[in-house]
Amino acid sequence: MMNLRTRQIVWLIPVITFLFLGAGDSEDSIKPLLLALVILLPAAKVSGWIVEKFGQPAVLGELLAGMALGNLGLVGFNGLDYLKNDSGLEILARLGVILLLFEVGLDSSLADLLKVGLSSLLVAIIGVVLPFGLGWLVSSLLLPEQSAYVHAFIGATLCATSVGITARVLKESNRLKTREAKIILGAAVIDDVLGLVVLAVITGLVIGAGSGAGASAGSVIWLVVKVSIFLVGSLLLGVFFAPRIVRQVAKAKSKGMLFTFALAFCFLLSYLSTVIGLAAIVGAFAAGLILEGVPFQEFLQEGEHSPEEMLHPISTFLVPLFFLYMGIKIELATLFRFEVIGLALALTFAAIIGKQACGLAALERGLNRLAIGLGMVPRGEVGLIFAGVGLKLKIGEQPILNDRVFAAILVMVIITTLLTPLLLQWSFSRHGASNQDANKPR
Amino acid sequence: MMNLRTRQIVWLIPVITFLFLGAGDSEDSIKPLLLALVILLPAAKVSGWIVEKFGQPAVLGELLAGMALGNLGLVGFNGLDYLKNDSGLEILARLGVILLLFEVGLDSSLADLLKVGLSSLLVAIIGVVLPFGLGWLVSSLLLPEQSAYVHAFIGATLCATSVGITARVLKESNRLKTREAKIILGAAVIDDVLGLVVLAVITGLVIGAGSGAGASAGSVIWLVVKVSIFLVGSLLLGVFFAPRIVRQVAKAKSKGMLFTFALAFCFLLSYLSTVIGLAAIVGAFAAGLILEGVPFQEFLQEGEHSPEEMLHPISTFLVPLFFLYMGIKIELATLFRFEVIGLALALTFAAIIGKQACGLAALERGLNRLAIGLGMVPRGEVGLIFAGVGLKLKIGEQPILNDRVFAAILVMVIITTLLTPLLLQWSFSRHGASNQDANKPR
User: Fold this and answer.
1) CB burial string A380-399: b at 16+ within 10 A, e below
2) CA B56, B61, B63, B68 torsion: positive or negative?
3) pLDDT at position B138, please?
């Protein structure tokens, strides 16, 4: 009798397990993501709404909400720790920032960007040289025992700019058409190229140090040439061919066709950017710039919305997920490590001053130079990528960035990322922007 | 000299590799997905457009395009084989079908569904009993050497209904408001519940056969009670609370807030469905039904779009990816295995006849019964999930479905899935639907 009952219980276990696990494995893969979306979508919207009540940009609320959700482990709740490594959430977040920069590109004009192109170039160059130098200086003062390679790599991580946050603040506050915005966006693209070059050179030097050879000037020049050909080429080819292709596609007279092709074009340039070594968002921004010049209104079917209007709900869904995810990835525990606090604050100071000064390089008169410098400050995910390279890069057996230095860089990334929306909003509302005409809500 | 050159070349390899791999690991994770989207989005749209030219539903074109792209290996090109197992694509596809059923729910009315509820119940019951019996019969005739458990499991796999394809065809052709559509949608929900029960019973019997115990009637009744409580409870609670919650959320007067909460509600019920063991799309459909009754127009901000309008671009982006992905997953090679062709065709015949007959069970007069039966035919991803369970379920050391039987079931799934859009469209255009008023384009 007892035996039979035990058997029945044993037999029930897999059935009950099966029922609670759903009808099959494949269904499970989406389950954690669904739960994440249930929590994150309202969290993003409500936190953004709350900080907006206090006159701050929504993106700050999203970052803070993400940070809170990602660090519940500190108060003993670990049920959401899986968010840090959920591949589904990561994919949606990355698509979100790609579509954000595509939208920003669609709101910008290539001609206008080129008008302030020289300022952008100067801002980008100063914004790479100065943080690099200051980073090296701080490193050589505070870490005298480390080699010049380490100083150089720390300098390199300070060059990165994460334009997502700035772009979001500019877009939220309807300031994308200001000259400041154009200078920042242009400089961010150039900065991504320069950052790539700096990282390639340092990586080359470090690997060369291991093998005894130096960095090859030829390969660095080839990198610059390749990236420039890609950027200039895709813009030129795009501006020439995009309207013609749109005209052909429009002949199908099928609703949603133009939108689908616009999306595919955004993903194409994003993909090619990653192939060439640039960030995917640089390609997305270029795709937006190219399509901005296409007169879609002429080609739309009756009752069909323009690609920009169609994009809006998708970005409403996905963009906040990116900033939440960025917040979730922040490990607050690293902020509380006293042994790194000195180095961390010194690097943060160097990172902010270095980028802040680059606003002075802009040529036009009457600009809000403070805002330009602030717009270049956030290191965000680009800073994390640079630091991640440093963790894997080794001289002999030692990684170029040890645990302590890595933690200090993380603190720098966190502080620059969280401060920017706050300071940028404050600077614009206090000092305004160069042409306030474009500042009206659309 | 030679040595130096070799060194330089060795040193160049990691740098060049690094450049072509992008600036860091994390960027790589999105790269295959970006390439997939570049190919799949236009492929879906163009193939849908082509088959529509021939009067067929776009979903058929998407399935065929997916099948073509997923089987390029047959002509020696394996560059896209990664699509079959790309987790990013799978996640977007699954979100796509969830949002499709959410949209379909928003287009349906709970009251109207309940009006034809008895018909739906009868259609679902006949649509489970008959295919189960026919599947058992075919199996016992063609596989006399196998045990009754195998016959029962094969019968169970024939019970599944994948409502995604039918819902898409109904939506595309503006037939969601017809009585036929309501009967099919209601029956599909009930079918998912019944299918779950059948699968649980058979699984229990098989596991019990291994351990020597029988299926426990108590656990099966508990399953039915649990699932019923969930469905009825979520609908009742939802209909009562949703308008009140929406009213509160609207007080924030923040654009996009209602849309965000609507999306989160859809994902919440989808998630709870998977927890209870139902398909995620059942919850998404229920969420749509509940929100359909909420007067969103009263609560929208100036210039804000309704959740349904906001949903449209997202589903334009994601829904075709689901059907493409379904096509990509089809291994054409299985169709060409002669040793399974007899069993495959017999099972397909049983699967179609079994569901086809259930249209006769609908009570209302003047219905297009052929269309109702056809709407229940596709097995799609649900059939694949059932078959997948059979591959893992073992009696002793033997899986309950051997390789040959599994291949035959796959063929049945493929044929029922591909035939449905074709036949359903044909049936509706030939015999019409019960109330043609609702058939006008909106």
Assistant:
1) bbbbbbbbbbbeebeeeeee
2) positive
3) 93
Q: Burial letters for A154-168: b for 16+ Cβ neighbours within 10 Å, e otherwise?
A: bbbbbbbbbbbbbbb
Task: Please tell me which of the candidates B44, B316, B385 has its beta carbon nearest to residue A27.
Answer: B385
The per-residue DSSP string of A175-190 comes to -TTSHHHHHHHHHHHH
Contact B375, B161 (CB under 8 A): no
**Are A307 and A320 within 8 A, CB to CB?**
no
- Smallest CA–CA distance, residue A59 to chain B, in Å, is 15
Cβ pair B23:A277 closer than 8 A: yes
- Cβ separation B199–A23 shorter than 8 A: yes
CA–centroid distance for B175 within its chain: 19
Alpha-carbon torsion, ordered A186, A187, A189, A195, to 10 deg: 170
Quickly list H helices, A108-216: 110-115, 117-142, 148-157, 163-172, 179-211
Q: CA B118 → CA A228, A356, B391, distances in Å?
A: 67, 70, 35
Q: Which two tokens stand for residue A420?
A: 């920017």
Chain segment A281-303, per-residue pLDDT in tens: 889 989 998 998 888 888 888 88
The residue with tokens 């065929």 is B64
User: Contact, A266 vs A287, CB < 8 A?
Assistant: yes
- Closest partner residue to B27 among A12, A259, A385, by Cβ? A385
Burial B231-248 (b: 16+ CB within 10 A, else e): beebbeebbeebbeebee
Amino acid identity of A40?
A: L
Contacts of B267 in chain A (CB under 8 A): 34, 37-38, 41
- What pLDDT score was predicted for residue A414? 84
CA distances to B31, B37, B40, B91, B93 from B70, rounded to whole Å, are 19, 14, 11, 17, 15
**How many whole angstroms separate alpha carbon B198 and alpha carbon B223?**
11
Give the other-Cβ count within 10 Å of A49's Cβ: 18
CB contact under 8 A, B200 and A14: no
What is the distance between the alpha carbons of residues B232 and B334, in angstroms, rounded to a whole number?
Answer: 41
Instruction: Assess whether pLDDT exceeds 60 at residue B295.
Output: yes
Q: Hey, what amino acid is at B396? A: G
A238 close to A292: Cβ distance less than 8 angstroms: no
Counting Cβ atoms within 10 Å, is residue B419 exposed (0-12), middle (13-18) or buried (19+)? middle
% pLDDT > 70, chain A: 89
* pLDDT computed for residue A22 by the predictor: 38
Torsion on CA atoms A159, A164, A170, A176, rounded to nearest 10: 90
CB nearest to B38's CB, from A203, A264, A309: A264
pLDDT in tens, B153-190: 999 999 888 888 888 888 888 888 899 999 999 998 88
- Cα dist from A183 to A109, A167, A359, A440, B346, whole Å: 12, 12, 9, 19, 69
What CA–CA distance (Å, rounded) separates B405 from B88?
31
Alpha helices in B54-178 (DSSP H): 58-70, 87-107, 110-115, 117-142, 148-157, 163-172
A30 to B386: CB separation less than 8 angstroms, yes or no: no
User: How far apart are the C-alpha atoms of A156 and A412, rounded to whole Å?
Assistant: 13
**Beta bridge partners of residue B394, listed in sequence order:** B399
- Locate B250 and state its tokens: 């609207």
Computed on alpha carbons and rounded to an integer, the radius of gyration of chain A in Å comes to: 24
Amino acid at B188: A
Q: Over 70: is that where the pLDDT of B372 sits?
A: yes
Whether B161 and B372 have beta carbons less than 8 Å apart is answered as: no
Q: Which two tokens stand for residue B351?
A: 């699967």
> What is d(CA A325, CA B263) in angstroms, rounded to the nearest whole number?
18
Is the four-CA dihedral B311, B314, B318, B323 of positive or negative sign? positive
In the three-class reduction of DSSP (H, G, I as helix; E, B as strand; rest coil), residue B68 is classed as helix
Terminal alpha carbon distance of chain B:
77
